[in-house]
Amino acid sequence: MYFLYTIIASLAVFFILKWLKKRRYCTDLRRLDGKTIIITGGNSGIGKETAIALAMRGARVIIACRDPDKAEKAVREIKLKSHSLNVLHMELDLANLSSVREFCKSFLQREKKLDILVNNAGMPGVLEWTDNNFSMCFGVNHLGHFLLTNLLLPRLKECAPSRVITLTCSSYKYQKLDFQDLNYNQLPFFTYCRSKLANIYFSQEVARITEGKGVTSYAVHPGFVQSGWTCHYSILFRMLVQVIMWMFFVPCEIGAQTVIYCAVSDEAAKHSGGYFIDCRPATLRPFARDAAVAKKLWEASERLVNLA
């Protein structure tokens, strides 16, 4: 009898875990021939799976990341899996604003088109600092992408209709921004939450300032994904989290589906400035829809990156 109960309990756990990990797939088969796409952090995780999927649809895909060796390896894998040779790498370190400016200068000289910008790269909650003395989370997740998008925005407008997709996380709901301490870098999880909330405000403000100019903007929560973010922590922590991720998190291929959806879907284009989960629009907490806060963050970010 005990053996039977064990089997029933095991099956119940199996089906619960399977249900928790069930996610929608992007079913839109639109081609992207002739389109040029930048994906930050496209050498691994969700970024690489997004690159494979969009390259398979005929796009010219540029993965932007800081490690040339990892990037070249990723380019070979993406080409092999997508059966496309139109994939390349350009060096970009989002933790260094000079690198962001150099990347944009080089890209604008080399490439005549930019149709989709995927702000995918991100840092987990680590108490480190960027080369410009910003907290690593806020500096990479928000400020690096903020400067990158602004410098590339004229090209996106020239190539309209175009799209900006920024990855965020549902953990935004656990924190609010403190404009007296945007560079907050104390509790790792809260630091991460604030950077993800900044991503949402940023995406909304991109939609506002480009309204009527052919550029649409989307904030995407890809779900909780089995990515490589644990590499920034100790071996013991990695081992523990790997078990949890295996049980409850989804593979990167599934995590990329909502990004792909926002890159190709006509339906998504009707919701510029929206927040997407599981290939459909989702509702944000009221404080995360505050247009005045989004504008204030934009103006503060302009000063921090010396954009004005």
TrEMBL record:
UniProt GO MF annotations: oxidoreductase activity
InterPro entries per UniProt: NAD(P)-bd_dom_sf, SDR_fam
One Pfam assignment: adh_short
Gene3D superfamilies reported in the protein's UniProt record: NAD(P)-binding Rossmann-like Domain
Keywords annotated in UniProt: Membrane, Oxidoreductase, Transmembrane, Transmembrane helix
CDD domains the UniProt entry points to: retinol-DH_like_SDR_c_like
Membrane spanning stretches: 6-21
The UniProt record lists the keyword Endoplasmic reticulum: no
Family note: Belongs to the short-chain dehydrogenases/reductases (SDR) family.
Listed name of the protein: Retinol dehydrogenase 14
